[in-house]
Amino acid sequence: MQQIINFVIRNKTFLLFLLLFGISLALTIQSHSYHKSKYINSANFLTGGIYESANSVSDYFNLKTQNTILVEENKQLKSLLYNKENTQSNWVLDSSNSNGRFKFKTAKVLKNSYASSKNYLNINKGEKDSIQQDFGVISSKGIIGIIDNTSRNYARVLSILNTKSQINAQLKSTNHIGSLIWNAKSSEYVQLTDISKFAPVKVGDTIVTGGQSSIFPQGILIGSIDTFELDISGDTYTVNVKLFNDMTNIGHVYVIENLDTEEIKSLETDTNE
Amino acid sequence: MNNINFNIILQFFALILIQVLVLNNINFLGYINPYIYILFIILYPVKNNRLLFIFLSFTLGLFVDIFSDSGGVHAASAVTLAFIRPPVLKFSFGMIYEHQTIKFSNTEFGNRLIYFTIMVVIHHLILFSLEVFNISNIILILKKTLFSSIFTILLCVLISVLFSKNQR
C-alpha cells in the first residue's frame, strides 16, 4: 500500500497529464463518432451570450450585402407569386390558414465556421422559440444544415460542411436519389454519392433535397453538378456538387419544422418491429 | 506575487476571447488560422507548480473547444504541450534553464525563436491530427500544420516582442 501511494506521489504530474489527456481524447472521439455530442458544445448561455454580443457589433459591417440578398429573394418570390398560372384575384395572405406540413422560423447566425473538418453554426433561437433537434436549416439560396443541439436561447447547427453530415438529395430532373456528404476539401463543394449509374447525370444539372428525409421539404436547392465519375465498383456515380450558397457568408437563415415528423417516425418504428 | 497572478488570469481570459472572437474567423486562404492562445502555455512563468500549470492548460484548451465546437482537440494538444514543456525549455535554452533563472525577455532572440517553433509545431501537429482523425489524410494534416504554424509563430513572436518591451 505504502508503495502504491509513493508511486502515485512520485508520478503525480504524469498521472494528472494522463487523466486530462484521456478526458480530452474521450471528448474528441465522442465528437467524431456520435451524431450528437452532448457535453461540449457552443449552444450554452455563456458562449452563446458572448457570441451574441460580438455579433451585435459585427452585424453592421455586412448590412449592405444582407440587404441585397433580401431584395434578391423578394424579387424571386414576387415573380413566383405573380407568374402563377391561375392567379387568384383575391389573394389573401393569412398565416393562420397555412395548411402546409412545414413551418418556417427566422433566425440569425451568430457564429459560422467553415475551415475545420467539423463545422457548426450557432443561431440565436432555441428551445424558447420551440426549436428542437433535427429541424432543417436553409437560407434563401439553399440548404445550410440540421439543428443538432439546443439550449434555452441558442441552437447549434450541424453544417453540411461537416464530415458527419449526411443528407438525402436527388437530381432535379429525375428522381434518382443519393446521399450528400462532404470530403472536407473545399467549402464550395460537397459530394453526392450513391447515384445510380442509370441516372442521366449531366454537368450543370441542379441537385435538390430529396423527399425521403422527414427533415427537409422536397426540392430545396443545394447546388449544381460540377464534375462526376463512376465509382470503383462501377455501379454508382460520385458527383461533385458546387453549392449555390456561399457558406462563408451567411446572415439570416430559416429553420424548418416538419409538423408530420412524429407521424412519419412512429410509422417507421412500427414497420421496423 | 499577487500582481503576477492577476496578470496570468487576465492573460488567460484575454487570449481565449481574442482566439475565439477574432482569430478563429481569419481563415486565410480558406483554412489557415493562427492559434495564439498557446502563448499562455509558452510564456507561463518557469518556476511554477506543475500540477496547477497542467490543469490550467487543460482548462484553457477546453474553453477554446467549447467555443469552437471541436470536441476535445484543443484540450488534448494544450495539455500535452504543458506536459512536455520542461524538456523543450531545456533543449532550447540549455544552461540558463538549469539554473532556473530564465526570464523570457532576457533570453537571446535565436533561442526564443527555436523554443517557439518547437512548441508551436508540436501543438499544431497534435491538434490537426486529432481534428482530421484520419491517417489517410496525412498530407492534409501536414499542410495545415505547416501553414498554420508559420502564421502562429509569426504572431507569437510579434506579440511577445510588443508586450515585453517595457520590462527590459
Automatic annotation (TrEMBL), chain A:
Keyword Acetylation: no
Cleaved signal peptide residues: none
UniProt keyword terms in alphabetical order: Cell shape
Chain ranges of the Rod shape-determining protein MreC beta-barrel core domain: 109-257
Pfam families cross-referenced by the UniProt entry: MreC
One of the GO biological process terms: regulation of cell shape
Statement: the UniProt record of this protein carries the keyword Transit peptide: no
GO terms under cellular component: plasma membrane
UniProt family annotation: Belongs to the MreC family.
Protein name: Cell shape-determining protein MreC
Organism: Ichthyenterobacterium magnum
Lineage: Bacteria, Pseudomonadati, Bacteroidota, Flavobacteriia, Flavobacteriales
From TrEMBL, chain B:
Keyword vocabulary terms for this entry: Membrane, Transmembrane, Transmembrane helix
Transmembrane segments: 5-22, 28-44, 51-68, 74-93, 113-133, 145-163
Organism: Ichthyenterobacterium magnum
UniProt-recorded name of the protein: Rod shape-determining protein MreD
